[in-house]
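Annex B. Sample input.
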Amino acid sequence: MSAEATNPEAHPEARPELRRRGRTRLDLRRLGRAALLGPTSRDRLPDAIGHVAEAHRAHHPDADLSVLRRAYVLAETSHRGQMRKSGEPYITHPLAVTLILAELGAETTTLTASLLHDTVEDTEVTLDQVREEFGDEVCFIVDGVTKVEKIDYGAAAEPETFRKMLVATGNDVRVMSIKLADRLHNMRTLGVMRPEKQVRIAKVTRDVLIPLAERLGVQALKTELEDLVFAILHPEEYEHTRSLIAAHAGERDPLPAIADSVRAVLREAGISAQVQVRPRHFVSVHRIALKRGELRGSDFGRILVLVGENADCYGVLGELHTCFTPVVSEFKDFVAAPKFNLYQSLHTAVATPEGYVAEVIVRTRQMHRVAEAGVVALGNPYTTATADAAECDEERVDPTRPGWLSRLLDWQESAPDPDTFWSVLRAELAQDREITVFRADGGTLGLPAGASCIDAAYAQHGEAAHGCIGARVNGRLTSLSSPLSDGDTVQLLLAQDASSGPAAEWLDHARTPAARIAISRWLDAHPDRAMATTSAARAPLSVVGARGGGANAVADLPDAPVRLAGCCTPVPPDAVAGFVVRGGAVTVHRIHCAAVAQMRAVGRTSVAVHWRATADCRVTLVAESFGRPHLLADLTEAIAREGVEVVSATVEPPVEQRVRHTYTLQLPDAAGLPALMRAMRDVPGVYDVSRA
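Annex B, continued. Sample output.
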């Protein structure tokens, strides 16, 4: 099954179908009437599933087909007498679903479960019978695909069915593989349904099944589902696109000639490669038309280059960029940085002397297999490796669980309400890109594109993230609302105060369902405790003691009054300089204060200043912190424990949950200043303390 090649003439009644070259089209109407119970040798499958056997053996030459025969016998016997709304015998449906998976390269267990996927739901067959006859694996997959009873769940049956499938997919991805193939065949035959039901099913397919196919890397199913949904939900645009493709079919296509040129270039370079033209599917043509306006002949397809090794991909790229004019903006390297759904390829575009621009995809044959079939071709990647268990430390061969699927499995437990689950599931799946960020301990977090530090906090710490007060991204302090980029390193700062909780505005920056559900739950449980912040700027307290006399500073100017500058509040043993100001007083600044440079720039002469032996001093400190309840009280208590007197304190309104505190303090001994600053930094929520 091709992921991109779509024949515009194969879409009667808005039902496009992909055709596999070189194989006779399967007549599903006749399959249900195939003779099954006649004399059959033990090593020969019934004629009705001959196409399935042929497709399966093409990918798995040594597969044992006897289990497929037994599964088909049970399915045909169980469904006998049942008819689809299209008038076909019901057995044609599980056969068609199984054939789809067989062509994608699914292994025998998947095909066995596919043949039986509706037996427990629609016939008298029980799960115990399936387990006894075919084993626990097949039983688990069939149970995962089986819908919940509508009589028990009512309107919630559909979301609860998807919840059940997601949970089962967490243990065995083959559950969702069968569901995707099942939906594809149902969409192919949707024309017999009422228009309103077609629209409802198409919307669920668009919002849930297509994103799941994308995340599982099953491009062959995703692209055909997109075309089928496009035809139902956007019939006018679909017809316009179909007419564009039909018109192009009668014109000269420049891509074959460009492909010949690519073959010649690679042949001359000694690179063994298979070069083919891949027609775009309907939705892809529609998107290109929206992007570029008027379409040219080379816009209706792409050139695919298949090679043997990863290094050959870059060799092909170098030859293409040497012999053609590359379009730099179209280059993407998904080989060195694969997509989160396992996809790997090099994408580029080259311009020809005739003025055509051709998109080129370069990948190995193994990459191509995974790009077409995704996890369907990998069996169940969640099982523990057996042969290489010692080498892989018994870690699961698990390409998708660390990211999107783990998030879905985590938050679905926190969404008992079916409506909430259904709406949040669609929102989560609408995220079409994923990023990976690194934790401070060396681990990684998979997050949707646009996620913030808040999302990272809940992904790493769960409900303990309620006490998160800030973050360092790539070593720099930042607010929790800051968005993260692919490859960032994030260190999350948690408060020690157990009473800390999230602010309501966190919901404006949370992108993941787990974060949004946890925050909303906490806010609902604490209606009277909206995140208290030191948002109201406090009026400065009255000054205790006069700032005159210069404290313990003495100027080399007899009888001149000495004052310590408020801009830099020098303390012993700071290097200082004094300047005579209006009234004859000497103002003392730290030597590196900006005011010193300004005084000297205007020609003021400095006065020598030294410190008396007395140790008391006055200093202004600035504390930078993240807003949280009781922060001002905790800071004041920390200052008091050091035996320091607060002369004045000012708290500015918070900006992005960051608060700036300014304290003027009277110290009994200047030597205690470093200890005081350390004590203030140790207060939870404070990330920096500095001299003013």
